[in-house]
Design goal:
Elements: H1 6-9, H2 23-33, E1 37-41, E2 47-52, H3 53-57, H4 77-83, H5 88-91, H6 105-115, E3 119-123, E4 129-134, H7 135-138, H8 146-161, E5 169-174, E6 177-186, H9 189-198, E7 205-214
């Protein structure tokens, strides 16, 4: 079974800023490159933090609204300092949460979810920036064709991994949803089949209707009387 990695879906040739990049230049980078965030890197291309559109828009929070009321009083001192920042280094959210090129799509998605971030700078063994991966990049695996998913399950999972007879399990895939019907020898094999199918790139869900010939889930191999 082959799983796509962060390297397979990340964007290379990343637009970056330096800590001393001025506010307006950062805004210009967003506009010219049609992006919504940039990594801030040091002189060795190691990510220090991220500046996003939200960080730039924070500047508006300290501006008077049309009615003449100031929003600055509602900000903490730290938030106000960032709202009034003039450079990328002062604007950025740090430290940078990074990924590695060899991470699986699942691993990167879990980090994004845990850290509540929309993108991850990707770094090599030396910590240097080599790419950036976003939520939309990770979702590319769900664009796999149903036929490719079915072929991988039938050939790699059921055939090469579990050594099941070609007629044992019928696999259908529709919009990434896998349906399994048929019969396997041992009942204990059913959750293994389902788990391996769920791990295939592009699978949205697995509907398991497999039957079994022998219920081996209640056997106690350490107690000879259980086999009597």
């Amino acid at each position: 079974m082959q799983h796509r990695t962060v390297h397979d879906v990340m964007t290379q040739g990343v637009v970056t800023a330096r800590p001393d990049t001025p506010f307006k230049e950062v805004a210009g980078l967003f506009h010219r490159n049609d992006i919504t965030a940039v990594p801030v890197v040091d002189d060795r291309d190691r990510p220090l933090g991220m500046v996003s559109e939200a960080d730039l828009l924070r500047n508006e929070a300290v501006q008077p609204d049309p009615a003449g009321h100031s929003g600055a009083a509602r900000l903490s001192p730290h938030e106000r300092a960032r709202a009034e920042a003039e450079t990328a280094g002062a604007l950025m959210t740090s430290p940078a949460i990074t990924a590695r090129p060899d991470w699986s799509i699942v691993e990167a998605a879990r980090v994004m979810d845990r850290e509540k971030v929309k993108r991850l700078p990707v770094v090599d063994e030396a910590g240097r920036l080599v790419g950036i991966v976003s939520r939309s990049d990770l979702l590319q695996i769900f664009l796999r064709h149903d036929a490719a998913i079915r072929e991988e399950i039938t050939h790699d999972v059921l055939g090469e991994t579990l050594w099941l007879a070609p007629t044992a399990v019928e696999v259908t895939v529709h919009d990434g949803v896998v349906s399994l019907t048929g019969r396997v020898e041992q009942k204990s094999l059913i959750p293994i089949v389902e788990r391996l199918c769920r791990s295939v790139d592009g699978v949205v869900a697995v509907h398991n209707a497999l039957g079994h010939t022998v219920d081996d889930t209640g056997l106690d191999v350490g107690n000879p009387s259980s086999a009597a």
